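task queued by scheduler; priority normal; single chain, no ligands, no partner chains; default sampling; output format set to structure tokens
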Amino acid sequence: MAVHGGGGGCCPPMDLLRSEPMQLLQLIIPIESAHQTVAYLGDLGLIQFKDLNAEKSPFQRTYAAQVHFVSPFNQQPQVLFASLWICIKKIKRSAEMARKLRFFRDQMLKAGLSPSAKYVSRADIDMDDLEVKLGELEAELIEINANGEKLLRSYNELVEYKLVLQKAGEFFHSAQNSATAQQQAFGSQQTGEESLDTPLLLEQETSTDPSKQVKLGFVAGVVPRGKSMAFERILFRATRGNVFLKQAVLEDPVIDPVSGEKVEKNVFLVFYSGERAKNKIIKICEAFGANRYSFPEDLGNQAQMVNEVSERLSELKTTIDTGLLHRSNLLQTIGEQYEQWNVLVRREKSIYHTLNMLSIDVTKKCLVAEGWSPVFATKQIQEALQRATFDSNSQVGAIFQILHTKESPPTYFRTNKFTSAFQTIVDAYGVAKYQEANPGVFTIVTFPFLFAVMFGDWGHGICLLLGTLYFIVREKKLSSQKLGDITEMTFGGRYVIMMMALFSIYTGLIYNEFFSVPFELFGRSAYVCRDLSCRDATTAGLIKVGDTYPLGVDPVWHGTRSELPFLNSLKMKMSILLGVAQMNLGIILSYFNAKFFRNSVNIWFQFLPQMIFLNSLFGYLSLLIIVKWCTGSKADLYHVMIYMFLSPTDDLGENELFAGQKTIQLVLLLLALVAVPWMLIPKPFLLKKQHEDRHQGQSYMPLQSTEDTLQSEATHDSHGHGHAEFEFSEVFVHQLIHTIEFVLGAVSNTASYLRLWALSLAHSELSSVFYEKVLLLSWGYNNIIILIVGGIIFIFATVGVLLVMETLSAFLHALRLHWVEFQNKFYEGDGYKFLPFSFAFGDEEE
């Protein structure tokens, strides 16, 4: 639903009952002022453009839009090609700038920054300059990111290298100490003395020429711990066991230089013999993602290497920190102007998107636009066209003209922040047909009232009111923030909740319930106890000693044995009265719809029989309820209504409420029976006669047939198919279904309103249980700890069950009563929204 403020002197007063009168406009815009014109119309936000290129592919649209921007005075092929190339560049640059802005936003989110929420008023920023600036900032940011990634990768590699030097150095050091100890132990033994520890190849080792000894090589590095076992097995199999592998576990996870993620790793050291074994080991390391590092054999060089790596790590750390600071400053600078740039780029994209919807004039000098606008916006649109012509220095002004069409216009209700939420409730069922009666006007009152009938407790109502007042008081601040899904939904319906809370306070005063506790707010009770045991008795134990309690239920009823039967009877009858009243309102609105559209057939053969049928049965029941309340009669209304159908001629006996009741019931029953064929039979024949008369030239007035066929016939007429054949069987079957639905719905809808009684009773009993079985029970123990625990349980139960779950339940039931029981009596909801081209909605997601 397009929302346009009704404030100011430019717009007529807001009217929600009928949608705004709309008109189809045609604008003929000179090419040189097209961009400026569309921009000003977007600022105005009161015209919905039609897509005149719907049959064209995007490629054809783009080509057409590019040609449109070529100056009509450029006749030479070279100039034409140059202008075309400039237009291609202009059209594509907005998409490229939007991509750069998305890149900036992603970078800011990764850095933990957020764009500035405040929007600076739009300054005169040249789009060419903005394009250059965004390109420079993107190049600088990409370069900073690339350098930062390289430095960070080098830093992580040095961290791993340092760990390899430390762990492998420990292995070499321990191996050297072990070898020294073994040599000393061996030297102390006597020559020729052998033991199990004597090396088997000692004689060969001592006798072999040192130049012919096999020299072992080694590879050092780190491998992910999860792959270490497989890494060891593959090494053993590939080299047939001719390697020696030593692994050391790293206590803390390290950042992998390639992936940038923290990974648990092991330092490995593999000793091998021969180049073939070395090549196999290198390939296996690459396959397992193991990082290899050079390692000096000399212990002195190892210590020197560790010191050098530590110094390089310190230098890299300082450089990385400086780069991050510079990147953060750059992103903060971008964030301060991000919203302004984003709005400008979105405006530019939306302008070109709209221009792609326009068609080229046959002279190749003008663009032709068509669109819907409210009638009251005519002067404003003309002023915007004149301003665009002047600002673009165009020699020819835009032409504004109104087209006459049979096409159904869009539906446009001007709402404010209070009425928009109620209109959204109606639109969720279906958008109103053009200028049909809008249920949103009545929903403002009936929806919160029916909710309050089910939720009536002025204590709970005050809690709801305090909660919604928080959103209302801080609405300016909260409206500029990004809220969660549930919070945002609650904030959007803050005025609906406020009305629900106010009506709940009112119905709570009528029910005389404050967290299920009655109060004598408006005077003393009219009854007193006859004796001490009267609270356990029925009303026979009470004596009326004063005037009737002035407002709502007398507090003396609460807590007595007759409380539940009394409130059951009261709320059930009240639910029927409210339901019949709202259904009658729906049928009356169908009369105003038929009168507005000059549809006499619906007045005589839909409105009248429906009113007669509904009120002959359930209107009569409502009358009996009121008479019984006023007279204090003990007549059984169930018996009266049942035998009104089963035995209409029998005497009523003690169930007679007034004289002549039997005769009235016979007349009403006869009227209800007559109303059914009255709805069913005449209307299809009359529609067929109107159709024949119109096509035979005997009637030149537009056919106002059933609401279901009006839209389709208007569409056929607008496309030149006015001689569509009238399908009598389809119309008759449709009327038969409509009649059966109304007759059965009159019963089921009335019964559906009994949910008001059921939910009101459930809410009252739940509140009473929480009060008596939690709060009063904990109070009776005279223990402060039990009292505190009981109070906490009572608060959480009240908030969680009664203020959240019961509120949602009553809301959904009230929603169903409006959508099904009320709106189906008159509301078609087969229209479509007026969605104007406006920059005011540019902040929504694309």
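post-processing summary
- The radius of gyration is 43 Å.
- The mean pLDDT is 84.
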